[in-house]
Amino acid sequence: MSTGKIVLGVLAGIAAGTLIGVLIAPDKGSETRRKIRQKGDDLVDGVKDGMTSMVEDVASKFDKLRGKARKSMNEALASIDNEHADL
């Protein structure tokens, strides 16, 4: 299972549990709505943080892969140049 799916599943579980807890709590309607709004904002922030982390991770892996590809290409070109020089 991918990291993104795990993060999304955990965040959805936290949101559902929090929403149920807030709805069951014996508070005034205005207070309950405020709590739901705050938890929604917290969830959005958590998703943004998770997505930012995933994007940074993917970018880092891409940069490493690009570096390896560039190194392999340079080695191949050097090998071709050496073979050409031997002819």
Number of strands: 0
- Kindly report the average pLDDT value: 84
Helix content: over 70%
Helices and strands, in N-to-C order? HH
Largest sheet: none
Strand proportion, as a percent range, falls in under 5%
Structural classification:
mainly alpha
End-to-end separation: 52 Å
Radius of gyration: 25 Å
Low-confidence stretches: none
DSSP summary: helix tally:
2
What spatial form do the alpha-carbon principal axes imply?
A: rod-shaped
Number of domains: 1
Describe this structure in words.
The mean pLDDT is 84. Helix 1 (3-24) runs antiparallel to helix 2. 0% of the residues are buried. This protein has one domain (3-86). 92% of the residues lie in helices and 0% in strands. It has 87 residues and is mainly α. It is rod-shaped and about 90 Å long.
Briefly say what this structure is.
The protein has 87 residues and is mostly helical. Helix content is 92%, strand content 0%. The longest helix is centred in the middle third of the chain and has 58 residues, at 29-86.
Keywords:
92% helix, 87 residues, mainly alpha, single chain, rod-shaped, 0% strand, 2 helices
